[in-house]
Amino acid sequence: MRVVVTGGAGYVGSILVPMLIQRGHEVVVFDAYLYGTSGVRTVPELIGERVNLHVVRGTLEDPPATLLAGADAVIHLAGYSNDPTAEFSPKRTMVVNVTGTQKLLELAQAAQVERFVLASSASLYDREGESTDVLDETAEIVPQSTYSKSKQLCEDLLFDSAIPCPLAFRKGTIFGWSPRMRWDLVLNTMVRDALLSGTITVANAGLMWRPLLHVADAARAYVFAVEAHETLVKGQVFNVVQDNYEIKMVAAIVRELCDAFDYPVQIQLHPGVAKPRDYRISGAKLAKVGFTPRVTVSKGAFEIVEKASLWSKKALADPHGENISWLRVMAEVSDLLASGVRP
Q1: Between the N and C ends of the chain, which has fewer C-beta atoms within 10 Å?
Q2: What is the pLDDT of residues 9-41, one digit of tens each?
Q3: Which residues contact residue 246 at a Cβ distance below 8 angstroms, ignoring those fewer than 6 apart?
Q4: pTM of this prediction?
């Protein structure tokens, strides 16, 4: 198939794109390169110099009219992807995430794209600590943040569209190593902080539950989404989660692994916040149609510690690896340029 992956140079996309190509698909990456090009540059290194890959640089606000020409499927990963970046500019988040998705859906319908896979989020289930039941796809969603509200609106747009085979993945919090590494995800942040300062800081005594998913499992789920028979996935919302973990459990796993690499780590428990993020989800529905994530927190954390231990502290602290920090850097540069100062 010809598969268009928006955000294909990102944290998940840089794992997903090589998988799709290795399985014989032609891939078009559409990306604004907001966080650089490393996710695309590594593709030839991973699967050889001759790859069936096309790259289109652009933004969701103004996607090329011919972007989806000849496409069989779209995997829509692009957009502001967590609460801090969404709250940095709520208005722009709605333009990029929601209006951008609307434009993409219009192009998909015009190009007669058969399948559209939306990257949604399990944060839709966050009740700000009001419920810790294990929630399935039938649970009421009451999005609390700009980010989760934008994802609900994107789901509504998708399922109101004329796409023949729409589906959405409500993924748990992702972790794991990627060519476009992010350090602003809970487990990844713990590893980075442990290596930088020897300390993991945990709020609310670490009693909050969080659904977690390895980045490679997220990528494999998207491959499954475009290859599965449409009767299994058409018009469906699926939770995607390896398992639910208490934050204190994750911190203990990271500390143990760091100790094994001769990085002694302390866990500092801080007082609670008024409304912590605290929710669990079920992945049973996706398992019934044939896909089950398999990379545990222990296995994924081991890989991060092993690879990150080879990085310098300067590289680990680089703002490029934390989405909100990088947006702030770019905003500062933009302000300097607007004032006539050359950084």
Answers
A1: C
A2: 999 999 999 999 999 999 999 999 988 887 787
A3: 206, 207, 208, 209, 210
A4: 0.93
